[in-house]
Amino acid sequence: MSFRLDFVVIEQQQNQSRLALTLHNLSDKPLAQWSLHFTFGRWIDSSSLTHGELEQTGSYNILTSGRKEALKPNGHFYTEFTVGTKPFSLLDDGIIDAFICSGNSTSLINPLPVEITAFGLQHPQLKRHTTALEAAAEINIIPAPQHLKPLGGLFALTPHTAIEIDTPLAEGSSRWISTELENLLNEKVAVHAAGSIHYQYREHLADSAYQLLVEQDDIWLMASTESGFSHATASLLQLLPSQPSHQADMAYHIPMVEICDEPHFAHRGMMLDCARHFHPVERIKFLLDQLARFKFNIFHWHLTDDEGWRIEIDAYPELTQTGAWRGPNELIQPQFTTISQRYGGYYSKQEARDIIRYAADRGIMVIPEIDIPGHSRAAIKSLPALLTDPDDKSIYRSIQGYNDNILSPALEGTYTFIANVLDEICDLFPAPYLHIGADEVPSGVWADSPACRALMEKHGYEDPKELQGHLLRFAEKHLSNKGKRMMGWEEATQGDKVSKDTIIFSWLSEEAGQKCAQAGYDVVMQPAQATYLDLAQGESADEAGVDWAGRLPLEQAYQYQPLAKLPTDDPAHQHVRGIQCALWCELVNSKSRLEYMLYPRLLAIAEVAWTAPENRSWADFSARLNGQFAYLDKVGINYRRCE
Ligand code: ACM
């Protein structure tokens, strides 16, 4: 390659690091009128540069030399600058992607590739953290069922095994198990009245509870609800060995067992960020297969953010024509990875319906998130006439480095936009909930807008933050009229404007969730420190991920217990609907990286969500996890290895 970029930490203090960047011209030609385009996850103090000039939008930076001279053959450009954040300890903290531009083209950018050398961290590589697991047992169901009794003996599953259902409540599960068995056996499995896998309605079983009985000649899956049948199916699938005992007959021997089981928490979710990087439908379906297998029942679909709008909205085609794409020649600048090309994608309504149906067959409800009023840059750039207030001179910078990503509560267009988008999303998604984000609105926003000031005066608000509550209250009412309950991140409570009907997802800390529950909000506990699966899972510098909320090794994820500091009879516990994990995808741009971050921690969270604390044991879990690897290997999941 003709160009090389070196990036090193030269000094680190608690809240300030000095970095050096060197661009080498390894070609035999001068590089005239150059600019270096690179992505980097932290905010650079542009006034601290020793050489050159820097412009930063989110993670995207454009560095120019500030001089007319070309970069000579075999010459280099060197600069230093300051970043005012915590010390760097991961290679992923370095430059994510880069390209060079040369010439004075002001319209179309022609990217030239540049090689990025490994991030030069000042500290020695830390030890890789691995986890020693107990030996696997014969039955390794995760999450641990409430009661499981091995009966001795085996049921032989073959291509001749058929399924029988006695209730429409089991139709989704029968489609799911048929697909799974067809994948296993390479043959279609019949559903008819003389099947030996029986789905049977049992009125006395509670919502989501199930019983599973595997006998020598029959398998009984019993429940009173669709979700109960899904969970019974999940347990049965986990009893299947990953290899047939008779290759020629394709016979899979299932251990005879009796299981009675029900979940500890009603809400067992996972959030996937599809905005920062786009995950294709097939990747999501494969993830849904695993979520269902481990008895998650909520897929929280983060569909919009600063860096991309991912869902088709008929009223505003611009949202996906413009807002779903970023790149050097797009309206939205490149971010994170793949920055020299046009990058993006979105889900058509038809694709969303397909995912909703696919999830429903597996007992999973899809809850869409439309993140407002912050994290709205893709929408604002797509619909500037509707969503921009030219008189707003407020100065702010979001934590991700944007100064133009917050909807204005004083613009009529904002309310038209929210109403139209929410209406379409409500119609598209059958879930009785809709998540409206509400996170990370930075201070300074709306402070220097005459229209916002007038709105504050009209309503007697003293703090611009109250305007966030004002806008969210509109969303809450609008959703309520559509028969939906609003959900939001914990900042939705700021300004005290939304009602206690809104469900809060607490993410900043355990204490924040506890406070919301004590204040009377229903909460989903999602403290980053215990549930954010984009956090690195080991100590070494080359571990993938981020560490702003610390690192999250497998056992730490397993040991999480919501509201553990409160006595068990504290009424706040009644407000905890469940727990959720999240995969934010700034650095997750492939199936393999997604899986590396998720597995095996997803299985640990599954057990925290499903199994009552008194039935959980790390040693027992680690043995069962060991027994799950054959399955993960078989389906080709790139999980992080344990020893
Ligand atoms: C969040 O992590 N901003 C909810």
From TrEMBL:
Residues 265-612 form the Glycoside hydrolase family 20 catalytic domain. Pfam families: Glyco_hydro_20 (PF00728), Glyco_hydro_20b (PF02838). The keyword Endoplasmic reticulum does not apply. SUPFAM superfamilies: (Trans)glycosidases, beta-N-acetylhexosaminidase-like domain. The keyword Nucleotidyltransferase does not apply. It catalyses: Hydrolysis of terminal non-reducing N-acetyl-D-hexosamine residues in N-acetyl-beta-D-hexosaminides. Keywords: Glycosidase, Hydrolase. Its EC number is 3.2.1.52. PANTHER family: BETA-HEXOSAMINIDASE, BETA-N-ACETYLHEXOSAMINIDASE. This is beta-N-acetylhexosaminidase.
